[in-house]
Design goal:
Helix content is 46%, strand content 18%. The chain is of the alpha+beta class. The chain folds into three domains: 174 residues, no CATH class; 137 residues, no CATH class; 63 residues, no CATH class. Helix 1 crosses helix 2 and helix 4 runs antiparallel to helix 5. The protein is globular and about 75 Å long. 26% of the residues are buried. The structure holds zinc ion. Zinc ion binds next to loops.
Length: 390
């Protein structure tokens, strides 16, 4: 199984300079390839990474002579990256055009800016990077100190170095050589993911969004406003120490929000995957929902798709079957007790009285129970029931 581990690094000042240069080279190659790709599109050519890479090798000494000293793999991987991004976008566009359903929206790749996250691929292929306790040995640069040792043994497939809010991290992708464990015996747990409550499980567990997330988002909004004001007062291009420090604060806060959210997701998904034999989730059309503007912010915040991604791979790790109910399964509208269908249910309703059996259904808990029962509902087909009760 492939596993990922992200570890903060403790580079020397010289190593930090080297990292910065490598990241700059990666960004330059990426942006060059994106420019070429766009120019190709304009004349009806779809340039893949296989066409772009030889072109880059031919002209790199002319357009980026300063890169000669750096690792050439960095540029190669950056162009491969761009190739994947354009392929993903192309696939998405094809699906949309042919009316197929899509799990998430894929945007056209954007040019990378210096002020954005810096990063580059540091390996030269599988097993070219070694880790020895709290030291990682990278090609070309050698030993770099890490704050902790790798958690998983195995073969190191990929290493990406990037900088978040001023700290350099190494992200390891490791193949541990082990097969996923067989599916264990355990209850079926339906998981309803939502905006207010992050997740509601049919076994009674609820996962709230942490308060720290909301206060962080509030502070973020204030910072965004301050930055916008500063831009209006001083002009976009003029340097300002105050604005620079606002940018630093914003990057730190962003990193913190991501950490808080991820931490919450990790704890909850591990608990669910460990206790269940089977997990059933809703099939979310997150892309479709984000288009709904009122809900967009809240949904993006809750990071529902991130939650589900983690839940899926953790089910694989801990031997639980992971199932997605089909998109048309009305988990919220059906009464989990008798199968009556509430077609008047709106997004604002947190609870509803069942017209069939009279029970008061909590919206999320009821949906979770229905998911646990999916696809077979253990009562007569709901349509007949509904006819009787009208
Ligand atoms: Zn009912």
């Amino acid at each position: 199984m492939k596993k990922a581990h992200r570890i903060a690094l403790k580079p020397t000042p010289e190593q930090e300079v080297w990292f910065g240069q490598q990241a700059g080279y990666a960004r330059f190659a990426y942006n060059w390839a994106l420019g070429e790709f766009k120019a190709g599109l304009d004349v009806g050519d779809w340039l893949t990474e296989r066409t772009l890479r030889p072109r880059w090798n031919k002209i790199k000494s002319m357009i980026a002579p300063w890169g000669a000293e750096l690792s050439q793999n960095v540029a190669k991987y950056a162009i491969i990256d761009l190739g994947q991004a354009t392929a993903g976008w192309g696939e998405y566009r094809r699906k949309v055009k042919s009316g197929q359903r899509t799990d998430r929206r894929v945007g056209f790749p954007r040019f990378k800016r210096r002020t954005h996250e810096q990063g580059f691929r540091a390996d030269n292929g599988p097993d070219t990077v070694r880790a020895d306790g709290k030291v990682v040995i990278l090609p070309k640069i050698g030993q770099v100190a890490m704050v902790e040792a790798l958690r998983f043994p195995g073969s190191i497939q990929e290493v990406t170095i990037n900088r978040t809010a001023g700290t350099w991290f190494a992200c390891f992708c490791i193949e541990d050589g082990q097969e996923p464990p067989p599916v264990k015996a355990g209850p079926t747990i339906g998981v309803d993911v939502g905006v207010g409550t992050m997740a509601t499980c049919s076994d009674g567990l609820t996962v709230e969004n942490p308060r720290a997330l909301y206060s962080g988002l509030k502070r973020l909004r204030r910072l965004d406003n301050a930055i916008a004001r500063s831009r209006n007062v001083h002009g976009k291009t003029q340097q300002s120490d105050r604005r620079e420090s606002l940018y630093v604060n914003r990057r730190r806060l962003h990193a913190r929000i991501v950490n808080v959210r991820n931490d919450n997701h990790h704890k909850a998904t591990t608990a669910i995957a460990k206790s269940a034999g089977r997990v059933v989730v809703e099939s979310l059309n997150v892309a479709g929902m984000v288009r709904n503007r009122r809900l967009a912010r809240a949904i993006a915040d809750a990071g529902m798709s991130g939650f589900l991604t983690k839940l899926e791979y953790k089910c694989r790790w801990y031997g639980a079957e992971y199932a997605k109910a089909d998109r048309w399964f009305a988990s919220s509208k059906l009464c989990a007790r008798c199968g009556w269908r509430n077609d008047d249910l709106t997004l604002a309703d947190r609870g509803w009285w069942c017209g069939g059996c009279g029970v008061l259904n909590d919206r999320d808990a009821n949906a979770a129970k229905n998911l646990a029962n999916w696809p077979g509902l253990s009562f007569p087909v709901f349509r007949h029931r509904r006819m009787e009760t009208v």
